[in-house]
């Protein structure tokens, strides 16, 4: 990072202080191919575990700014039908073929007990989407990974030809208005402390010393593997605060600087957008359960109570 300190830059859309205040999580979830003994936490009551992916299939050798970014959000419900995001898993993949990326995504979705999958289904993402709505066989283990279907777009759902496939995929078709919505929601999420990120790779050392046996004496390469989720979180923060933006009428366009990335931003923004949709669904369900007859009974009981004043 050239020994350049963190901080806000001119034209930045996201505020460093807002994001830094959200770095509270101590425990990361690790890739199973790195740590075979990783224990995947069970879902708590009404938790939504959202896997998001921003897709790039061609690694950019010139600018090194094109990668597929996968994140997992353990969205925990609150008492007011909202959720708190907990970004527990972050990983980037470069240069994967379409079928390889689809297999990685589908395996992660099952292994980490995810409930929702959000994917950029436009452009190169359409090929990955089409593979996810089919049964996939893991060539290494022979395991059958059943097809998934789309829950938010009827036309995309019709591309799934497997009967009774779970409707868990949120297909993103980006537009100017949608891009404006997701960046505003994400910024508000940080400002309102509704998003929790992992602590820094420096803070995590003390945590890992307590949790990993003989961590201090393990070789540096092994220590870096344990630190990678925290390092990836720092890279996410660095990416967010270095994004520029342009305002065109009522729309906001997020722009990465030359040689910089925005794949982690996009994956997080898609993920948080799905969480906001789930909150809206909860609100609609709450309103639909309103019973006028029950309300009238409660009101009648209140009116019959003796005056206490």
Task: Please report the number of helical segments.
Answer: 9
Coarse morphology = globular
Instruction: Please state how the strands of the largest beta sheet are arranged side by side.
Output: 1-10-4-3-2-5-9-8
How does the helix and strand content classify structurally?
alpha/beta
Number of strands: 12
CATH C-level: Alpha Beta
Beta-strand share of residues: 15-25%
List the uncertain runs. Answer: 1-5, 305-309
Which bin fits the share of residues in helices?
A: 25-40%
What average pLDDT do the residues reach? 87
Stated plainly, the CATH topology is called Nucleotidyltransferase, domain 5
Biggest beta sheet attributes:
8 strands, mixed
How many domain regions?
Answer: 1
Q: Can you write the helix and strand succession as a string?
A: HEEEEHEHEEEHEHEHHEEHH
What is Rg? 22 Å
Sum this structure up briefly.
This protein has 309 residues and is an alpha/beta fold. The protein has 9 helices and 12 strands.
Descriptive overview:
This protein is α/β, with parallel strands linked by helices. It has a single domain (16-301), classed as Nucleotidyltransferase, domain 5 (2-Layer Sandwich). The protein is built from nine helices and twelve strands. The strands form three sheets. Strands 1-10-4-3-2-5-9-8 form an eight-stranded mixed β-sheet, sandwiched between helices. A two-stranded antiparallel ribbon has the order 6-7. Strand 8 (149-150), helix 4 and strand 9 (167-172) form a beta-alpha-beta unit. Helix 5 crosses helix 8 (263-288). It is globular, with a radius of gyration of 22 Å. The model is unreliable at 1-5 and 305-309 (pLDDT under 50).
